Structure prediction request, 79 residues.
Amino acid sequence: MTKAGLGLPIYVSANLPAKTVIVADPTRIHIGVRSDVRVAVSEDFGFDKDLTAFRATYRVAGLAVDAAVAVQVIKASAT
Prediction:
């Protein structure tokens, strides 16, 4: 699997429709963090296999973009 294109990192998401790509300049995107990262541990999950599960969560306050051109959504044609 390709991890970079034209020197930029590529991230795959199942949350986008098929044939849709978002190109963004991460230096122009700002996210406000509302809380510190919380780590939860469960020793009950997978107990029969001697497994421990970890979950890390945090909340964000919002997303701001310096310039509209910093984020572009590209949709391929249906054919």
About this structure: Residues 2 and 10 are 7 Å apart (CA to CA). The beta strands are 4-5, 8-9, 20-24, 29-33, 38-42, 53-57, 60-65, 71-75. The two ends are 24 Å apart (CA to CA).
